[in-house]
Amino acid sequence: MTTEQGSTQPGTNDRPVKLACRNVWKLFGTNAASFIRERDGKASMADVNAAGLVGAVRAVDLEIRQGEIFIIMGLSGSGKSTLVRCMSRLVEPSHGKIEFEGKDLLKISDAALIELRRHRMGMVFQNFALLPHLNVLDNIAFPLGIQGQDRATREARAREVIELVGLRGREHFYPRELSGGQQQRVGIARSLATKPEIWFLDEPFSALDPLIRREMQDELMRLQTMLHKTIVFITHDFDEAIRLADRIAIMKDGEVIQIGTPEELVVNPATDYVAEFTRDVDRAKVISARSLMRTCDGSEHGGTVSPDAKIASFSANIVSAGKPFAVINGTGKPIGEVTPQAVIDLLAGIEHARAGA
Ligand SMILES: Nc1ncnc2c1ncn2[C@@H]1O[C@H](COP(=O)(O)OP(=O)(O)OP(=O)(O)O)[C@@H](O)[C@H]1O
């Protein structure tokens, strides 16, 4: 998850893979599975179209690591929801492998799949999906009833998560008596009640107005610092993505075009489509000293920064110091420097040569 300055948590790369997609395809239409099987898991978009099929998800390879927030972005119709539904087999992929902790989800029995979904996966949807005739407490306790827990246990757990998401005092309200933000808190609490290890959130905040949306993003980050879930989060909004993401996958026409940290996508977009998503981003909040530094040229330094410090966190200081800042590693050794001019150019939107990148 990003910190206040937007730096990614160290060590995300070293964590075990929780869920992986290996050449996953989802084609809609007649004989979709045999179409892709006969082609050995390879087909162009033109082939798919010529066969009269819809290529909702095409040749997706990705690995989601334990405890990370993995965001899936893309324009409407690019395949985000279908891909995420394939991950929990709510939609049956036409081809490929979905591995949960290394085990192929497409090979497990229906009973094992139901068990996995009930106990280890959680889902939150844009439209909250609450049961209108149940109050907050009963909505939240509902999935625990499906798990077979007795009334006292499920109420105790429901009260715990109600506390966690800040809904104490609203236990006996019905969904229609709550604001949109509160309804989504119920949706979140309900899905957390079962203590899922992997949490799928499909545009959970997009029905909320911008202020509440920001509040809910903060809430999600607060919960994540306590709970350390593996989170797969769909959004259309790049600002939301860079606030929350450890890594972002950008989808287009069913394919994943690029996967990277927010900074990697902003600094090195793989295609014009990716660059278009990152165009209006406040680059100083995303780009770190590491990306902007050059080799030290012997000039006197006006201060020091860590390689992960976002430019916005020291731009005022470096400009007023009027001297380069040394970029120092964990042992205090300079590994490069950032100049005031490079910072001014970045703030002015001028692309700067990144000698140290
Ligand atoms: N059941 C279905 N039958 C046929 N085509 C489908 C079906 N479900 C999805 N599609 C198609 O698959 C493609 C991907 O849809 P999907 O809903 O996954 O996109 P998305 O990126 O989540 O879009 P949005 O952001 O609008 O929710 C679209 O072209 C869609 O029309």
UniProtKB/TrEMBL annotation:
Transmembrane segments: none annotated. Coiled coil: none annotated. GO terms for cellular component: plasma membrane. It is found in: Cell inner membrane. Its main location: membrane. The keyword Chloroplast does not apply. Its EC number is 7.6.2.9. GO terms for biological process: amino acid transport; glycine betaine transport; response to osmotic stress. Keywords: ATP-binding, Cell inner membrane, Cell membrane, Membrane, Nucleotide-binding, Transport. It catalyses: a quaternary ammonium(out) + ATP + H2O = a quaternary ammonium(in) + ADP + phosphate + H(+). It is a peripheral membrane protein. The keyword Transcription does not apply. It is an enzyme of class 7 (translocase). One of its GO terms (molecular function) is ATP hydrolysis activity. Residues 36-278 form the ABC transporter domain. Belongs to the ABC transporter superfamily. PANTHER family: GLYCINE BETAINE/PROLINE BETAINE TRANSPORT SYSTEM ATP-BINDING PROTEIN PROV, GLYCINE BETAINE_PROLINE BETAINE TRANSPORT SYSTEM ATP-BINDING PROTEIN PROV. The complex is probably composed of two ATP-binding proteins (TmoW), two transmembrane proteins (TmoV) and a solute-binding protein (TmoX). The complex is probably composed of two ATP-binding proteins, two transmembrane proteins and a solute-binding protein. This is Quaternary amine transport ATP-binding protein.
